[in-house]
Amino acid sequence: MTKPMVAFRNVDKTFGSYKALDAVSLDVMPGEVLCLIGASGSGKTTLLRSVNQLHPIDEGAIWLDGELLGKRQEGQHLHLLTDREIARQRLATGMVFQRFNLFPHMTALENITEGPVQVQRRRAAEVRDEAMALLERVGLSDKAGNFPSELSGGQQQRVAIARALAMKPKLMLFDEPTSALDPELVGEVLSVMKGLASSGMTMMVVTHELGFAREVADTVVYMDAGRIVEYGPPDQVLSHPREERTKAFISKVIA
Ligand SMILES: Nc1ncnc2c1ncn2[C@@H]1O[C@H](COP(=O)(O)OP(=O)(O)OP(=O)(O)O)[C@@H](O)[C@H]1O
Ligand SMILES: [Mg+2]
User: Fold this and answer.
1) Ligand 1 within 6 A of 38 CB?
2) Nearest residue (CA) to ligand 1, atom 2
3) pTM recorded for the entire structure
4) Quick check: helix, strand or coil at residue 164?
């Protein structure tokens, strides 16, 4: 049996008295594209940030490629990992945000080579060749020497995707990667993501682009108030949802 790339078991996350994640259990298999949909505040970003350990979870457990995140089991006891160990685990995941967060003082190429050279201590020449190949993959070979301020939003987001891929992650997380873009720039970013999906990358994607979800996702998850309310193939969740809440949400997004 194939083991999941990511496994969530009964994950809770509370902010003050508000439960942002409420008993979330979910498996994402290797090569699977999972799209997360749901209203504002339903916990989508919180779920992605838990995988990347940008905040600790309160209850439950998450495994990435079989490795327990944030903790180590010794006999009956769980020990919290050190910041250094958490940083190592974080490298297995690439994250792309709504805002591209490129380094403004570095060119597109330098943005991509920075992590592999400075963090992974890899050889600059080899990293540079890989970065050029990544730029080609996202359709930006001719922009290697441009600074972020010289690129469109869609181009910046494609550099951000290449930058995440340069670290050779096992899993890619996308948090509304196209929602800050002008409508005419959305397609070029979605098409890079589509290419990545067909190359076999495991992806968790928060998106309101239901057309993308329908075409590319293996699984769509609808979240409400920190819980997974609906889970299934796109056709089932988007066209034949079981829950009234899902129906209401989908008709609002399409409208
Ligand atoms: N750092 C934080 N401190 C306090 N509350 C938080 C924090 N992060 C998230 N929350 C709360 O947790 C809930 C879930 O937030 P989350 O950002 O995961 O929602 P979301 O589904 O991503 O929404 P959106 O579609 O608006 O991005 C919200 O009620 C939010 O206010
Ligand atoms: Mg969010």
Assistant:
1) yes
2) 15
3) 0.96
4) helix
Question: In one letter, which amino acid is 106?
Answer: M
User: To which residue do tokens 């891929």 refer?
Assistant: 165
SS3 71: strand
Where residue 90 falls (left for φ over 0; alpha for ψ -120 to 50; beta otherwise) is alpha
Tokens 């996202």, residue located = 138
Q: Give Cα 239 distance to the centre of its chain.
A: 24
pLDDT tens track for 162-192: 999 999 999 999 999 999 999 999 999 999 9
Structure tokens at 133: 């190949």
**Per-residue CA distances from 152 to 47, 77, 112, 173, 180 (Å):** 29, 50, 17, 22, 12
pLDDT in tens, 37-87: 999 999 999 999 999 999 999 999 999 999 999 999 888 888 999 999 999
